[in-house]
UniProtKB/TrEMBL annotation, chain A:
Component of the oligosaccharyltransferase (OST) complex. Coiled coil: none annotated. GO terms for molecular function: dolichyl-diphosphooligosaccharide-protein glycotransferase activity; metal ion binding. One of its GO terms (cellular component) is endoplasmic reticulum membrane. Its EC number is 2.4.99.18. Residues 450-499, 756-778 are annotated as: Disordered. Residues 578-637 form the STT3/PglB/AglB core domain. This is dolichyl-diphosphooligosaccharide--protein glycotransferase. Pathway: Protein modification; protein glycosylation. Its cofactor is Mn(2+); Mg(2+). InterPro entries: Oligo_trans_STT3 (IPR003674), STT3-PglB_core (IPR048999), STT3_N (IPR048307). Keywords: Endoplasmic reticulum, Glycoprotein, Glycosyltransferase, Magnesium, Manganese, Membrane, Metal-binding, Transferase, Transmembrane, Transmembrane helix.
From TrEMBL, chain B:
Residues 1-21 form the signal peptide. Pfam families: Ribophorin_I. Subunit of the oligosaccharyl transferase (OST) complex that catalyzes the initial transfer of a defined glycan (Glc(3)Man(9)GlcNAc(2) in eukaryotes) from the lipid carrier dolichol-pyrophosphate to an asparagine residue within an Asn-X-Ser/Thr consensus motif in nascent polypeptide chains, the first step in protein N-glycosylation. N-glycosylation occurs cotranslationally and the complex associates with the Sec61 complex at the channel-forming translocon complex that mediates protein translocation across the endoplasmic reticulum (ER). All subunits are required for a maximal enzyme activity. This is Dolichyl-diphosphooligosaccharide--protein glycosyltransferase subunit 1. It is found in: Endoplasmic reticulum membrane. Pathway: Protein modification; protein glycosylation. PANTHER family: DOLICHYL-DIPHOSPHOOLIGOSACCHARIDE--PROTEIN GLYCOSYLTRANSFERASE SUBUNIT 1, RIBOPHORIN I. InterPro entries: Ribophorin_I. Coiled coil: none annotated. Keywords: Endoplasmic reticulum, Membrane, Signal, Transmembrane, Transmembrane helix. Component of the oligosaccharyltransferase (OST) complex. It comes from the Eukaryota.
Amino acid sequence: MAAVESLPPGTPSAMRNAFGTVLSALILVLIGVLAFSIRLFSVIKYESVIHEFDPYFNYRVTQFLSKNGIYEFWNWFDDRTWYPLGRVIGGTVYPGLTLTAGTIWWVLNAINIPLSVETVCVFTAPVFSAFASWATYLLTKEVKGSGAGLAAAALLAMVPSYISRSVAGSYDNEAVAIFALIFTFYLYIKTLNTGSLFYATLNAIAYFYMVCSWGGYTFIINLIPMHVLLCIVTGRYSPRLYIAYAPLVVLGTLLAALVPVVGFNAVLTSEHFASFLVFIIIHVVALVYYIKGILTPKMFKVAVTLVVSIGLVVCLIVVAVLVALVASSPTGGWSGRSLSLLDPTYASKYIPIIASVSEHQPPTWPSYFMDINVLAFLVPAGIIACFSPLSDASSFVVLYIVMSVYFSGVMVRLMLVLAPAACIMSGIALSQAFDVFTGSIKYQLSSKSKDDAEDNTSTKNAPKDDASSGKADKGEEVAKERLSKKGKKKEREPAEKPSVKSKIVKKKALVLPLEASIVALLLLIMLGAFYVIHCVWAAAEAYSAPSIVLTSQSHDGLHVFDDFRESYAWLSHNTDVDDKVASWWDYGYQTTAMANRTVIVDNNTWNNTHIATVGTAMSSPEKAAWEIFNSLDVKYVLVVFGGVIGYPSDDINKFLWMVRIGGGEFPHIKEADYLRDGQYRIDSEATPTMLNCLMYKLCYYRFVETDGKGYDRVRRTEIGKKHFKLTHFEEVFTSHHWMVRIYKLKPQKNRIRGRVKKLKQKTTSGVSSKSVKKNPWM
Amino acid sequence: MAARIWIFSVAVALFLSFSSGHDLQIVNAERRIDLSSHIVNAFLTLKVENIGKDPAADMLLAFPPTQIKHLSMVQAMAITGKKKKKTYLPLDVKPTEQPDAPNDTGYFLVSFATPLTPGETVTLEVLYILTHSLEPFPSEIAQSESQLVYYRDSAVILSPYHIKQQTTFFKTPSARVESFTSVDPANRAGKEIKYGPYEDRAPYSYAPVIVHFENNSPFVVVEELVREIEISHWGSLQITEHYRLTHGGARHKGVFSRVDYQSRRSISGSSSFNALLAVLPPKVNSVYYRDNIGNISTSHLRTGFKKSELEFEPRYPLFGGWRATFIIGYRVPLEDYLFEAPDGRRYLNFTFGCPLVETIVNKLTIKVVLPEGSKDPSTVLPFTVNQDLQVKYSYLDIVGRTVVVLQKDNVVPTHNVPFQVYYTFKPIYMLAEPFMLVSAFFFVFVASLAYVHIDLNIVKK
């Protein structure tokens, strides 16, 4: 738009620019529509429902926010979870997503569009992925022109890695955070390119939004300093760099400290120290440049030696203080998740609770192919393109991709950070490749026509100019191959236009043979088509299942397993509103959100001991478990059991984590007791401890009566102990496919009965009063 | 024991009160009480004779206070003609108060079509429906037990008039009757218990009886039903029904075992229910069935010319005392339900009541959302309901839509009769929202046009 303003109207090039602007605006709108609609497979194939685990918590918080308002939200102490500890939601949650959806809901209702909170939550992620692809366009445009921008935006709109976290219903922090991440980077680059304080301020605000949204903001606050450092080291220091960095650190840190969940961590934890260090360095460098400017070279040399010697001392002191500070905190000032980023084996060694989450595992090679597909091959080309020529902006994206590749190698979840970088790189690569190939084709065609025709004043230059200017201005490259007629018309225009940007005239070397160019173009298009097909497949098949409702396609049609909601609905309607439900922490968020019952532990795994207590109860024998649960005021115990229909992620398969986490805190639970030949087994080879633990009993209670053999379809074996009775628990609900089983703790043994027993024993002169003494409630 | 004393007091009261002002007597009365579901239907055939000197314009029907609370509906018809050429003439029935009613007896006043001249007789058919009148005993049962209930009534008909001859039949759902109070002559044959005939019973006679029998029919009770009918003049009627359902029978006790429920269906959970049937209008479309945590996938729709049937299951089988909530929504074409009255007003003609079959609704609220800009709503209903007006803001409304709220307690399927809501509406209002959208977009484009063309820089470049 700005380009249109600056040019006088009426001239052909202004017309062309206007046309380009409108065309790229149209393409961007279409990309937005694509990004939104490719994420609707889950709604169409399943239903408009919140997915998985964490989104249910976010949904519940949003409900609370929309009902009670922002102040209540900040002060919200949730007593329905982590019983009896509770959880301060306002101070422990990243509020960005919730506030965003809450605001959208509020605005819509203010103009009388009565969408429910749930609907708004479901569609927040797709909407923000459209925003994210536009932000990608802006960022890439700053780096390599709008052609690359459009290509990158189109790639990001459908990159499977991002789709996996932002399908409709996947209402998680990442949904808005990726947009915030890209947008912050864009504003940083924009500031770096313009040196405008306006953009620097916007950048700090965007960073604030990112801090509100996701713990991944530390990536920004480490990546940008690294880039600044890189610029300084490579001698690219400029006042623009200073403008881009210094306000971000000051404003950004102040703003970040406003977010309750971050608070003083913004200055106290090691994740942020890099930014402060670089902040000091950039000031030193700025000072040096300033002094260099006002002093004569001779004086400067003297000053340097002086300053360096003093500076070294100061630095040493500062470093020593920092090291002392860091060393004084137990984890060295690093949070567990961040530490496991630096040392991938950290979590599995020390924190089983982090290791137990599948998305914290390192990814496998196929998952790279699954999640970024052909981008993996285009990225190197993009990196190369970024080096010709290397600018501040392109060095930033190179750094971005390098860092994100490393982090994605540590944790599957961080593949999400890699995806935008890969899209930007691939967009650049694709756009440059199209430039070269279409340029060559045009050059070849025009040189052919030059032989035939006599009108040959300056067409020789045409491909160069067109290719070089095409990069800088409106991005028709993408459209070009579709509009070959238009391209031909345009050929003559650059002749009139002097090459404004004074780009290098090495284009001659880039001219390829006509056939090779055409074949390469076709191959590129095929590659793109393959990518699109893969993305649509991934969106439709792999990533759209909401995981609370399962479906299976059998010969007699679609079969729906809706057991989770069946039992949550049962809990919510048929138990007392203050009853406490114990389950493994995976189901905590869902239970509080869907069943509205108090849970002992949930997916916010902040208290390891509490989780270990539940783990211990699950791995203890019935009586000990009853005592633990009773002491926690638990009324119902919920277990997930997949043995009847073959649902693999059930509690028996998660049992090893219960034992490990429980054993980590309570040493009387020994993992070895549950293992036979190094494996958790539930068949006839299983250890007695295993066969007597609560989890086994609750899962397999009366299981044998279903088929007469007790054949577990997940473990593919017959269970070890088939007939047993429960003495301290009673089955109160089992869902249709047995996936969820709910047991009630039997009430405490009556004292009166004990007394009667005693009396009887006295009268019959029974000796063993041991059994009575054992009962702790006597 | 209390009942005996009560009879005594009734007998005392009998001489004191002769309030109806008419000298009527019931020559012959036959009462058939159907106990086969949880909705108790009682059919009363009365042959009434005027033995006074003045013509009688109406007569009273009396109900004991225990029944008056649960009385959902009373209908009366006069029968004229014999056997083959019987014609039924609906009569006006309305609740009434009597100043000296003994022991809180409740009354309904039946107005005859033509006043009964002295000596004349008329045959009346009275239907009354009782809800929540079967008391489960034992009140808590385990999964494998079947449900036994008490029904309390009188062996003789409570009436302010002398009844010369009367018989009462109780029809139970199965032959399993644990006990019944014997008031001679009384006997049981299969599913039927017969009390009477009794001769010459004085006014306000009462002989309490208890029938204890097996009733495993689904005690589907909707505690609250809110039906919202939204009229869109763009061609459809959107109906959204919020149900809060419960099993009104004997409470479930202890264990619920899925093994028993699935493998031994015949003896396990016989009083529970899992399938429900809703009768929806024909040409119904866009039907959905969900609750507040999402879609419920167990439903099946059969559409037909006369009616559509939606068979569906709650998320889990309902045992005594268990609850479930859900929402059913559907859309029907407007032209079948919205008409223009001769005076230019429009009226909606829709069915009152609950679409679920064999259901008691404790509290029914029907909200008819008229289109924005409608005025002067009025309703026509065959029975009295509480009425109220509200305003609802929906998609891009400015002044809001008028909502006619009809509220009635204790609704049974017999209440599923058409009702009408009249209102005036100018079709021009239909264009308001499209116009708003168009102008909003227009404004956006104009604004962006202006932004592009106006130079906002302070410093001239």
